[in-house]
């Protein structure tokens, strides 16, 4: 009897994910030398997946490819099946991912599949920015924009754990109502300089975590103390930070933060140690992720349409 074909999502041309991602069947095979078979259980849909599918990084993305930077799977071992996070490459949107065992990090038994599948992209990005990119002393003032986003809410809880004085920046009073922060600032538009000036008048901030970019970054720079830190980790506005940002504030300690770069520069023991810290934060309720919906892999197109509706308030997972 021939084996049952497996299922995977494949991208053969760049564009809008719901239009470009195709399903195809494939047969199980023996892993190439040095790799192991990871039987994927759950995988997440993240903005970084859709950005890659759009063709934003053509020089490092070879077509065709299997998307998915985040997910949890299991590998066969002498002691049974060990759950792991297969990091380092894309390819989580399939039933079996062949991975380098050095990049497969064990998951604690107490962690649910749902939280394991979402324990990497947002929690690690948030924790590494706070503890390495910014690394402020207790009592320092930190501004976080898009604070009501999934990663923004996580950053607020982590910053509180680190005893930082946090200013949460959102675009409406409705968004501000659910926030737990030292103070909340409403910046209704990218050019809302009144809010930033008020923040500056109150003493300014020691650091900014910005995931919007564009003119919003320029506005926030006015609230930063001399020599303060500005970390850019996203461009939700779709616009680059304007050149005027550096012309007006050449004193700023600026850097981009990309988890992918940190992961590939760190050693495996360093990554494992940081993951253990993140797992502990999830256990304590600091870095938990709300799950909005779970779709079977066979319904990946429906999952992507649901994701792009932007009406959900949590992560979308794919059951592999």
From TrEMBL:
<dbReference type="Pfam" id="PF08240">
    <property type="entry name" value="ADH_N"/>
</dbReference>
<dbReference type="Pfam" id="PF13602">
    <property type="entry name" value="ADH_zinc_N_2"/>
</dbReference>
<protein>
    <submittedName>
        <fullName>NADPH2:quinone reductase</fullName>
        <ecNumber>1.6.5.5</ecNumber>
    </submittedName>
</protein>
<dbReference type="InterPro" id="IPR011032">
    <property type="entry name" value="GroES-like_sf"/>
</dbReference>
<dbReference type="InterPro" id="IPR013154">
    <property type="entry name" value="ADH-like_N"/>
</dbReference>
<keyword id="KW-0521">NADP</keyword>
<keyword id="KW-0560">Oxidoreductase</keyword>
<feature type="domain" description="Enoyl reductase (ER)">
    <location>
        <begin position="15"/>
        <end position="318"/>
    </location>
</feature>
<dbReference type="InterPro" id="IPR020843">
    <property type="entry name" value="ER"/>
</dbReference>
<dbReference type="InterPro" id="IPR036291">
    <property type="entry name" value="NAD(P)-bd_dom_sf"/>
</dbReference>
<dbReference type="GO" id="GO:0003960">
    <property type="term" value="F:quinone reductase (NADPH) activity"/>
</dbReference>
């Amino acid at each position: 009897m021939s084996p049952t074909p497996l299922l995977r999502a494949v991208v053969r041309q760049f564009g809008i994910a719901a239009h470009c991602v195709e399903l195809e069947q494939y047969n199980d095979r023996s892993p190439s030398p040095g790799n192991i078979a990871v039987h994927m259980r759950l995988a997440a849909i993240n903005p970084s997946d859709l950005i890659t599918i759009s063709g934003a990084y053509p020089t490092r993305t070879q077509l065709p490819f299997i998307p998915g930077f985040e997910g949890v799977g299991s590998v066969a071992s002498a002691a049974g099946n060990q759950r792991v996070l297969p990091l380092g490459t894309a390819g989580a949107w399939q039933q079996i991912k062949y991975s380098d065992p050095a990049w497969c990090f064990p998951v604690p038994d107490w962690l649910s599949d749902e939280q394991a599948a979402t324990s990497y992209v947002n929690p690690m990005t948030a924790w590494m920015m706070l503890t390495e990119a910014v690394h402020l002393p207790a009592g320092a003032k930190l501004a976080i924009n898009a604070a009501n986003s999934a990663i923004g809410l996580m950053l607020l809880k982590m910053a509180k754990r680190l005893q930082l004085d946090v200013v949460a920046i959102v675009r409406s009073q409705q968004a501000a109502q659910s926030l737990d922060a030292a103070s909340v600032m409403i910046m209704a538009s990218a050019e809302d300089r009144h809010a930033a000036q008020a923040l500056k008048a109150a003493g300014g901030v020691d650091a900014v975590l910005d995931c919007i970019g564009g003119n919003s970054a320029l506005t926030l720079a006015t609230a930063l103390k001399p020599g303060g830190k500005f970390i850019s980790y996203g461009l939700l506005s779709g616009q680059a930070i304007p050149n005027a940002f550096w012309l007006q504030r050449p004193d700023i300690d600026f850097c981009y933060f990309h988890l992918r770069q940190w992961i590939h520069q760190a050693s495996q023991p360093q990554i494992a140690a940081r993951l253990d810290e993140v797992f502990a934060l999830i256990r304590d309720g600091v870095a938990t992720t709300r799950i909005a919906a779970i779709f079977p892999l066979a319904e990946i197109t429906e999952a992507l349409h649901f994701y792009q509706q932007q009406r959900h308030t949590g992560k979308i997972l794919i059951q592999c």
